[in-house]
Amino acid sequence: MLKANKLLNAFLEDQCITLMNGERILFSMLLSEGLLLINFLHVVHANYFPSAALLKEAFKD
Q1: What stretches of 13-51 show up as alpha helix (H) in DSSP?
Q2: How far apart are CA 48 and CA 40, in angstroms?
Q3: In whole angstroms, what is the distance from residue 16 CA to residue 26 CA?
Q4: Over the chain (61 residues), what is each successive 10-residue block's mean pLDDT?
């Protein structure tokens, strides 16, 4: 497993995605932020902020 993690890290090190506004973002950062968002929506209450229930529904699976 450790070898697979090292290979994945080496692969993602310089991979970027160009956003619609022209900015470039590291793919590894995008994955990391996405996982944080999914985890947050999993633990937050449906009435934590306006439209929280809608976001929870969109990310439920």
Answers
A1: 27-43
A2: 11
A3: 4
A4: 80 88 90 87 86 85 69
